[in-house]
Amino acid sequence: MLRKPYEEKTKDISGLFFKKLVSKIPDLLFQLSLSPNGDLSSPFLNKAVIQYFELSRDELRNFDLSQRILENDFVDLLNSIKNIPNETTIWTHEFRAILPTKGLRWFKAVANVEIDSFQFVSLYGRLSDITEEKQREIELKISEERFQFAMEASSNGVWDIDMVTDKVFYSSQSMKMLELEEQDIISTHLKWDERIHPDDIEEYKSQFQLHLENKTPFYENAKRMLTKSGKYKWILSRGKIIKRDENGNPLRIIGTDIDITHQKEEEKKLLKSLEIIGEQNSRLLNFAHIVSHNLNSHTSNFKMLLDLVEDEEDECVLKEVFGYLRTSSNALSQTIEHLKELVDVNTNMVHKKENLNLDEYLNKVLDILSEDINKNKVKIFKKIPSECYISFNPSYLESILLNFTTNAIKYAHPDRIPEINYSHYNQNGSTILEIQDNGLGIDLNKYGEKLFGMYKTFHNNENARGIGLFITKNQIESMGGSVEVMSKANQGTTFKIYFNNEV
């Protein structure tokens, strides 16, 4: 029996091992050679080539890569091999192929490079099917392009906060809302929060914290934010935590910003309109009540007196009754005059505003009342700038100043010299005139709700008609302003008139 020498036997075993190993590897192993004249050959391809390129037996015998690889990609493949620099040891290239059943597939080749002295290029490597990876890459790219397009096309801003590092990304739209540019670096979440209006910061922090603690499904907050030009804009922010650690701590939160300044201004106008409508309805109900109550009193008097006239024959009694009729007639005329005055105040016929010098009008009123002021030794104190202007109706302003000043004199405290202080100042964008006296004062706990009512009097003064404060309040409100009162019995009264300077 002939026996192979040991080395030869070992060589046979080793060759068989590598042959089996190569045949079992699922990836396609190859050897490619490119001659200096550009001819590409494949001296070695393992069996995986059949599955990779879906080859039949006939196709396998005469297989040429150009049969499956897209034409342009095959040209690129050749150029890639031709242009391998001499010092290169690793070559990689991606290409597409069309397969009979699987259709378009992506492949990636990785190989060691050998270039001999005759410029023959030999590649020993592995081919991988990267179609799924490529599809994910393409889908991701498309998704990113769509997201980028959506961000650019949308008027909404987008933000993304890394809760661990506090690093933050704000889209260009978010930056534009606050009139910021790329060079205005907003690198941290806290730096952005510095622009929140002081009155809104606590509510914002509270709502943000509730979502961080997973107590709300998402975060939403409308707040005023300072723009680069110094103005405030209303920004509605919505966000949601998209990543937490194993302990539930937030790692990343993303959200949107929407400029709702216009919406807020419209809401403010709507609320103002509703307020005006409510006031008008209240005045209408009040007016209806006054008409019903007061006119009914007069008509009852007339009916009673006319019944007496019909039944009475005594001339003296009839003369007396006619006197009462005259008195009732005068009272009815006065009531109708008051109602007409009230209607005039609440119609647009007399609402014309002018730019008026407050100091000049006050001096004019004080001149009109100079006799009363001197007679009652009233001390007048003024803190009104000579160039203080308000937008108001001239007749109303004179009427209001006359009414408040007359009341201060009429209801002066008998035990002290009357003093009236006029002061002007601005507060929260409003122009305010304060008129303070040291007179009898009013018990607001007792009369506060009735103070500006019609025919309401509080000090049994024989000259009081109970119409002045009612008309004055209506005049101020018809000009878009408001009035407040602070008073204590036997100490004095302060009226604060808030002027609306909108024309």
TrEMBL record:
Family matches, as SMART domains: HATPase_c, PAC, PAS
Gene3D superfamilies, sorted: Histidine kinase-like ATPase, C-terminal domain (3.30.565.10), PAS domain (3.30.450.20)
Residue ranges of domain PAC in the record: 219-272
Keywords (A to Z) from UniProt: Kinase, Phosphoprotein, Transferase
Domain PAS: from-to ranges: 143-215
Reactions mediated catalytically: ATP + protein L-histidine = ADP + protein N-phospho-L-histidine
InterPro entries associated with the record: HATPase_C_sf, HATPase_dom, His_kinase_dom, PAC, PAS, PAS-assoc_C, PAS-like_dom_sf, PAS_fold_3
Name under which the protein is recorded: histidine kinase
